[in-house]
Fold:
Amino acid sequence: MKLFDHVAGLTPIEMSTTMIDGRRYYLTPTGNKYKSVTTVISNNPEKKAGIQRWRNRVGAEEANKISAYSTGRGNKYHKLVENFINNEHDTELYKEDTLVWDMFNASLEVLNNINNVYFQEAALYSDVLGLAGRVDCIAEYNGKLSIIDFKTSKKYKKKEYLYDYYVQEVAYACMLLEQYNLKIEQLVTIVAVESGMPQVEIVPPKKEYLIRLEEYIKEYEQTYEGSIRG
Structure:
């Protein structure tokens, strides 16, 4: 197994979370309460309507079962990847879940493109955007400093379904630049699927993603009057 190099000297940001009216906020070291970037993006009316249509189609019980299954699969995969990149590979962890292990093993060739790891599961925030969140991985991917996001899915995703991932990743890129003066070169989305090699999409941190993020923030603040910006 490959050993990953980790970049020393950067102090992780410590943040806790709180729920306000069922929505997640982060408590920053400077004493502000900032909206979760995930919560803001998922507030999109079209997305919420699409999820509700799906729940109506399959029924609440089946929808809850699928959601719980997907969350469990994603959490296990994330933990295996996190340990692997931390050079703490544990072959006993989730050994009974052969599907998750198959997805992880199918990802190894892709994961080996990662090196010079700055952070994993890192808390970040932006005073400019009034947002905070926790990014999967900040590291070089094929030699370029990247925001790396790990996803799981039953099958390969259509390109248009990945757009909001890029929006979220560009938010992390802004936070990283603001907090550490590190400039991201690319956004890397790795989607592990239940059969076959993972789907890997690499895009530059385009201005259009930032514009869409700002639209999401505005939509969120219009939906929830008195939204906390800091």
Q: What stands out?
A: The chain has one domain: 16-223. The longest strand covers residues 114-126. DSSP finds six helices and eight strands in the chain.
